What does this fold into?
Amino acid sequence: MIKAAHLCAATLLTLSLAACSRTSSTSAPSQDTATQSQDAATQAAQVTDSGASAVPNLLGGTQATGRNSGRADPEASPWNKIRPQGITPITSVIFNVVAHADDWELFMNPNVYNQMLQENTKSVFIYTTAGDGGAGNGPTPQQPYFVAREDGANRAVRFIANVTPAFSSNTVVSKVKFRGHTIRKVVYKNTVSYFLRLNDGAPDGQGYTTNAQTLQHLYEGQVKQMTAVDNSATYVGWSDLANTVASIISAESRPFGVASFNLMDPDPMINPDDHSDHLHTSLLVQDSLKDKTCVSVSYFQTYDTSWQDVNVPTDDLVNQAALFGVMESGKGDSGYPGSWESFHKTWLGKNYFRTVPATTTAPCL
It folds into this structure.
């Protein structure tokens, strides 16, 4: 009996030691094993000091001492760094004013991407046209093409806004009025997007119907007014449209009175063969600002970059490609063909722009 008891005790001791030696155990150490824990910690420190790579503890803080101590998943996000909304005050505003939903993703990166990662910066997006390709409020009333494009643009904005462990937020969609014109507004974290939903003017500015209401025709006076594809607003004359955009800029630049802008380059010598909507959207903003001296403007080259060299680092190229793919998913999920093909991909990795700095720091907006 004594021999059997000794055998059982030895067996239990062996099993106990084996259990303690399993590095995959999730049991928290008891007071009785404090000495063993200290020895294990010392051994781990010696291994690290000897040059072996230590697995980063993504949980950190007090959670690292709990039941998951020492078990880090390299694919896990640092979720404990999420902070309450509003902890970082806004100190600057950047406007990205484009004609179509995919313009800033294709032609203004990595600038927009990096600017949005600055938590103290508010990024404002203004889309002048619906980019409907002549479909108007169609081709299906239940899911118009322009809505799918807007969805893609909003996905791209959220994609960047969610890169950093910033505050959590819900998307707030509303209809607001500027100078009597109803405009769709989408707010997410430190971003604000406005969709004017004007007719797509086609690359040549002539639109898709005879005497079409396009930005070029409104600018040249060939048409007297321009109505959004969803009939949400009508702008009587170029000045009415320019003044409306100016009101948006003024409202979003408060209380600073200064801002930076990202626009398509309207100079045909620098940015040849551009889309008419690109050109006239930039002219619209210039007229809206009326030579304001407190704004800095970066002007980006567009279509002609397709034949130019890739000039961004690999990481920026990967970020832009991911951003473009996220945006295109908006059309795909709505049943429309996307633009994830070789033609559009020729614009990825191209970052050609010039900047005209502000000449004064005094508020002027």
Observations:
- The chain has one domain: 93-356.
